[in-house]
């Protein structure tokens, strides 16, 4: 199996009160697990199609692969972007880059919050590194894989699918997004920023 469900780096109750254990457990053990299963199943179905030389279903399979693998990637990031006792503000080069490209931390925070809150239907808000302009940008991702800037590297992602928050926050997505800021693992985001710049240099 090329894809496996990662363990969370903390207990299901570790993010309370900002993220309820029951909501987090279902999110990880059911929803994320379904993307992993879907990604593996789609890889198998593509191999079968190649073997049979039958590409009648290829358009659907390619879309399904993008959906499930992207869902797996984003959820795997999301868990590590959060940590008990997180929040506050970044430091060092990440903080300086945020100031340079957004004007201030508060301006970036407002843009990312609104990008997440204003997703129509299901999606994500993301802070990302765009290597051609060597810039930080905010992205508004639809589903898991649409409205992306090619080559950009996500650094901090906020899941705003209803499954992410509906048990705890009901219809009030904005309260969930606000709560996530109390959990952000800034050292993890800073590490991703450093690696993204190094990996895309040149
Ligand atoms: Mn999710």
Question: Could you walk me through the main structural features you see in this protein, from its secondary elements to its overall organization?
Answer:
With 202 residues, the chain is mainly alpha-helical. The chain is 55% helix and 11% strand. The chain has a 3-stranded antiparallel sheet. It is globular, with a radius of gyration of 18 Å. The mean pLDDT is 98. The structure holds manganese (II) ion (MN). The site of manganese (II) ion (MN) has 7 residues, from α1 and α5. Manganese (II) ion (MN) binds next to α1 and α5.
pLDDT under 50 segments (min length 5)? none
Alpha-beta content class: mainly alpha
Order of strands in the sheet with the most strands?
2-1-3
* Shape call: globular
CATH topology of the largest domain: minor pseudopilin epsh fold
- Tell me the number of structural domains: 2
CATH superfamily of the largest domain: Iron/manganese superoxide dismutase, C-terminal domain
Average pLDDT reading: 98
Per CATH, which architecture of the largest domain?
3-Layer(bab) Sandwich
How do the SSEs run, as a string of H and E? HHHHEEEHHH
